[in-house]
């Protein structure tokens, strides 16, 4: 008798489950799973013509689990924010390098994958990972959905991008510090892996590198000759931090940092800057000052960038 009651109960539960699944009114017709072989959007076509075809770079903005850290709680980038990131990367990173070197330089040395994630990647120690470079083949950029902190987006219809939009860069230094610094930092790891920076660089702060970098204040790091405390993690990170700062900091920011570092710390920073500029000239054939000037000019001429134009030229 008990067995029969259990069988009837299972049948009842199964029937209810099937009835629920057959109620199409409760289902969202839009799948959360992206069909990787689905039709490309206009933005996807633009990516092909501005990243994949000229530079052999795959620009991923849909959430790709195989490209992401499975140990972190991450949020995908929205398509709108990904568009802003894509324009920024092409106009303020790729184009200055091709101007100061050539197309072949970026074809050969740019990462094969740029992966944009919407959220930050928070660490257990309370710090946040802004980007990673993997084996010279891939750069992951986090915080893709934070672009509107630094950009003012004005929709033509006052609501959404359907009828186009314009963009004003409301915080140039913030955009440089949040995104461009990260891109330059990670790219410097790639070129450093291919042609190592001078060993002399590693000796300047060799006694001050520490795994406990996050315990240093800005002042403490500066006194030791580091532009940011993360640079004190290792010589490789120190190189990447100085490299990025050369390209992202204006004269006023450098003067403030030298003042914070005082005489000894500032002398160490200036020596590191000298060695990095020498390294890029002798090992890669480009001038950091020219590259910096190209980036700065593009930010000043930012109104020439059609942020909402994704037509294929």
Layout of strands and helices, then pairs:
Layout: H1 2-21, H2 42-55, E1 58-60, H3 79-100, H4 103-109, E2 113-116, E3 121-122, E4 128-129, E5 131-134, E6 138-141, E7 151-155, E8 165-169, H5 172-194, H6 199-204, H7 218-223, H8 235-248, H9 251-284, H10 288-300
Parallel strand pairs: 1-2, 2-6
Antiparallel strand pairs: 3-4, 5-6, 7-8
Helix pairs in contact: 3-4, 3-10, 5-8, 8-9
Descriptive notes:
- The chain is α/β, with parallel strands linked by helices and 313 residues long.
- 51% of the residues lie in helices and 9% in strands.
- The protein has helices at residues 2-21, 42-55, 79-100, 103-109, 172-194, 199-204, 218-223, 235-248, 251-284, 288-300, and strands at 58-60, 113-116, 121-122, 128-129, 131-134, 138-141, 151-155, 165-169.
- The strands form three sheets. A four-stranded mixed beta sheet has the order 1-2-6-5.
- Strand 3 (121-122) and strand 4 (128-129) form a beta hairpin.
- Helix 8 (235-248) packs across helix 9.
- The longest helix has 34 residues, at 251-284.
- 31% of the residues are buried.
Low-confidence stretches: 1-25, 27-33
- Average of pLDDT: 85
Instruction: Tell me the span between the first and last alpha carbons.
Output: 76 Å
Main sheet: strand order: 1-2-6-5
Helix content: 40-55%
- Structure summary, number of beta strands: 8
Strand-residue proportion: 5-15%
Query: How many helices does DSSP assign?
Result: 10
Rg of Cα set:
24 Å
Biggest sheet, open or closed, and with what strands and sense?
A: 4 strands, mixed
Properties at a glance:
313 residues; alpha/beta; two-stranded antiparallel ribbon; 10 helices; 8 strands
């Amino acid at each position: 008798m008990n067995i029969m009651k259990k069988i009837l109960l299972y049948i009842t539960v199964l029937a209810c489950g099937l009835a629920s699944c057959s109620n199409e009114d409760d289902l969202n017709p839009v799948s959360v799973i992206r069909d990787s072989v689905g039709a490309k959007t206009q933005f996807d076509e633009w990516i092909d013509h501005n990243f994949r075809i000229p530079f052999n770079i795959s620009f991923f903005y849909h959430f790709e689990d195989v490209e992401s850290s499975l140990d972190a709680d991450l949020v995908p980038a929205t398509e709108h924010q990904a568009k802003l990131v894509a324009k920024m990367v092409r106009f303020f990173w790729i184009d200055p390098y091709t101007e100061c070197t050539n197309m072949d330089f970026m074809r050969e040395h740019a990462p094969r994958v740029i992966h944009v994630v919407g959220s930050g990647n928070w660490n257990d120690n309370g710090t946040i990972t802004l980007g990673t470079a993997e084996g010279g083949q891939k750069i992951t950029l986090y915080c893709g959905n934070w672009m509107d902190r630094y950009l003012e987006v004005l929709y033509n219809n006052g609501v959404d991008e359907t009828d186009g939009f314009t963009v004003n860069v409301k915080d140039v230094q913030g955009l440089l510090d949040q995104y461009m610094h990260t891109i330059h930092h990670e790219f410097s790891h790639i070129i450093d892996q291919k042609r190592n920076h001078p060993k002399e660089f590693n000796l300047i702060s060799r006694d001050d590198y520490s795994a406990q970098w996050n315990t240093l204040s800005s002042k403490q790091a500066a006194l030791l000759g580091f532009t940011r405390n993360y640079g004190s993690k290792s010589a490789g990170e120190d190189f990447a931090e100085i490299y990025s700062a050369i390209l992202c900091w204006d004269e006023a920011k450098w003067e403030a940092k030298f003042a914070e570092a005082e005489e000894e710390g500032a002398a160490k920073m200036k020596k590191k800057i000298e060695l990095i500029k020498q390294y890029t000239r002798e090992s890669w054939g480009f001038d950091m000052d020219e590259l910096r000037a190209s980036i700065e000019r593009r930010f000043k001429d930012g109104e020439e960038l059609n942020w909402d134009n994704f037509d294929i030229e």
